[in-house]
Amino acid sequence: MREISRQHEAGLLHLAERRISLRKALLTVLLALAGMLGMITAATFVALSAYDDAHEAASHRYESLELMVEVRREVDLLSRLVSS
Questions:
Q1: Which of 47, 50, 46, 72 is nearest to 58 (CA)?
Q2: Rounded to two decimals, what is the model's pTM?
């Protein structure tokens, strides 16, 4: 009878150890997923920042080109006025 009781207690201890290891495994998986989600979020914000910078540079370039066209028109007009 004592032998059965000892085996039963050993089985319960093994089951408790297995629960702890399953909890550790689950916690490890959850932390890994949270880490990956954090990395994806950081990469998304970096890409968004780069897009905003590129869009701002393109807008500035377009405005500069518009000003250059205006300056060129003025220079052409002044050139015609001086030659006449």
A1: 50
A2: 0.57
